[in-house]
UniProtKB/TrEMBL annotation:
PANTHER family: FATTY ACID BINDING PROTEIN (PTHR11955)
Family: Belongs to the calycin superfamily. Fatty-acid binding protein (FABP) family.
Keyword entries, A-Z: Cytoplasm, Lipid-binding, Transport
GO molecular function: lipid binding
GO CC aspect terms: cytoplasm
First-listed, main subcellular location of the protein, grouped into a coarse class: cytoplasm
Residue intervals of the Cytosolic fatty-acid binding proteins domain: 8-25
Protein name: Gastrotropin
Domain of life: Eukaryota
Length: 131
């Protein structure tokens, strides 16, 4: 059980396959526009296996998911849907199955790299550490 240091603040740096992915998961057009090249700041507070994962969107909207590795938690999707998921830690990556996509997050070279996969479409988002 490698305890990766996820704690910190990360600012959106770039992504791949955003449009294909958000259409695949059925995000509405206004949400797609709002999220494109959006300077989301992701703030991670980690206490052992307990995480608070907050995304700050421009304009003051935030989404927070609080979870413990290996335990079922109430979560919220990119589109604001509520669901239950059990977040796992595999090879230092945080892994979660959202209702219509599979999500992983890892720290790679000081950056937060998040990969979401839906029906063969792979969306990758990279954020640089700012705190």
């Amino acid at each position: 059980q490698g305890n990766m240091a996820f704690a910190g603040k990360y600012e959106f740096e770039g992504d791949e396959n955003y449009d294909d992915f958000v259409k695949k998961i059925g995000l509405p057009g206004d949400k797609i526009e709002m999220g494109r090249n959006c300077k989301i700041v992701t703030e991670v507070v980690q206490n052992g296996n307990d995480f608070t994962w907050t995304q700050h969107f421009p304009g003051g909207r935030t989404t927070t998911n609080t979870f413990t590795i290996g335990k079922e938690a109430d979560m919220e999707t990119m589109g604001g849907k509520k669901f239950k998921a059990t977040v796992k830690m595999e090879d230092g990556k945080i892994v979660a199955d959202f209702p219509n996509y599979h999500h992983t997050a890892e720290i790679c070279g000081g950056k937060l790299v998040e990969i979401s996969t839906s029906s063969g479409v792979v969306y990758k988002r990279t954020s640089k550490r700012i705190a």
